[in-house]
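User: I want to check something. If I give you two sequences, will you return the structure for each one separately, not as a complex?

Assistant: Yes, each is folded on its own. Here is the first sequence with its structure:
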Amino acid sequence: MPELPEVETIRRDLARVLKGRRIVGFKIVKLRLLRNSLQLFKRGLTGATILSVGRRAKLLLLELSSGYVLAIHLKMTGQLVWRSPSGQARSGGHPIMGVAAVPNKFTYITLNLSDGAKLYFNDVRQFGYWQLIPKQEMFQHTHHYGPEPLSADFSSKELAARLAKHRRTSIKAALLNQTVVAGLGNIYADESLFMAKLRPQRRVATLKPQELSRLRRAIQSVLKKAVGSRGTSFNTYVDALGRSGTYWQSRLVYGRAGEPCLICRTTIKRVVAVGRGTYYCAHCQH
C-alpha cells in the first residue's frame, strides 16, 4: 500500500493534468468499488470541473465544482492511469505485471474528460474505493486522522497528546495508527524510529519528552526526503509519471535484515510487530 510520500507524489503529478478539466462522462464496471449509489455518482460527477487535487493521509481528494469531493483510496493494488488523446500517459500506484494496455480486464472505473483525456482506475484485488463526499461533510469524514506530519501544526506537543491515548502499546503500533500520524505506514515508521534511535518494541509510556521531540523531527525528515525522492519503489510501485521512486536505494533499515547497520555495522534485525515486518538496529536503537 502506498504511504504518504507515494500518494503525495501522485497528487502533485496528477494535479498538473486534471486541474480545470471537466468530467463529461464515466463508466463503472464494478459497483462494489463505489461507496455511494450510482445515482449519486451520476449527479456529482457528470459535468463537474475538477477544481483541485488534494490529499489527506493516504486519500486522494478531487474537489469538484458540483459541491462534492471525490475521495480515491488505492489500497493494496489500486492504480490510476491518465491518458491524453495523443496517447501520452501518466500512471500512479501499482502497475499490473504483464499488462501495459488500458483499458484492460482490471479497469473498473473510467472518467472521460473535456479535453479528450481519460482517467482509468485499475485494481487487481478490488480493495480500493471511490467515494463522493459533500464538501461541507469533509471534516466528519477525515477528522479522525491524526495531524499531517509535514504540516506546521505537527508539533511535539501534538504528537505527545496523540500518543498519550496509546500508552500501553508499542511505539511502532501507535505510529501505524492513522489517528496518531496521518499517512505514516510501515516503511517510514521503521525509518523514522531508526533516525530517532528508538526501538519499535518500546512502550509509548516509557518515552521521555526529548525522545518524542526527536521522533517528531525524524518523522518529518524521513517523509520530506521520501517525497523529494518520489517515494519508495519495490515490487510494482511506480509514481504518476511511470517512474520508480528512489528512496528505496537510500533506506536505512527497512528491508535490510541481515545486512550491517549503516551507522555501527551491527546486523539489522527483523521481527514481526502488529503483524508487519519490522526492522531495527539493536545497537543504535534503545
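And separately, the second sequence with its own structure:
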Amino acid sequence: MMNADGSNRRSPVAARRGFTLIELLLVLVILLALAGIIIPNLAGRSKQANTTAARVEFENIQTALRMFEIDCGRYPTLSEGLNALVEQPSDVQDEDWKGPYLERGVPKDPWGNEYVYKQPGRNNTRGYDLSCNGPDGEEGGGDDIDNWTRE
C-alpha cells in the first residue's frame, strides 16, 4: 500500500497489529506468579470444605435419627441401618412412620464412604454410634467424626 507521500513504508499503527514475544512472555510470567500465590491458599480449603460438609451432613443424619426415634419409639436397628430413615421398616406402623426423614436418601460422606451406624452403640450404649471415617476412609487416625467424642 502506498502512503500519501508515495513511499511504500507501513505506518506505525499498521505495523503494530500483534503482541511481541516479550510481551506474551511477560503476561505469562505475571499469570504464573499470581497462580503461585493463589493456588496454595486454595489447596487447603478443599479438605476444610469436605470436613465441614461431613459435619453438616452428620448433624442432619442425627436430627433424622432423633425424629425417627420420636415417631417410632426406637432408633433403627442395626439390620435396618440408616436406610430406615428413607424407607419404612416392615415392623413400624404406617401411622407412626412420618418419613422419609432424609429427603435425598442416605448420603455418603464427602470422600465417598458410607456413614457408620451401630445400634445399640458400643460407645453410646443407650442409643447409637454414628461415625464418619474422615478423609483417609479408615477408623482412627484422628480425622474421624463421631457422636461420642467432643472436640
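Because they were folded independently, the notes below concern the second chain alone. DSSP finds two helices and three strands in the chain. The beta strands are 116-118, 129-132, 145-146.
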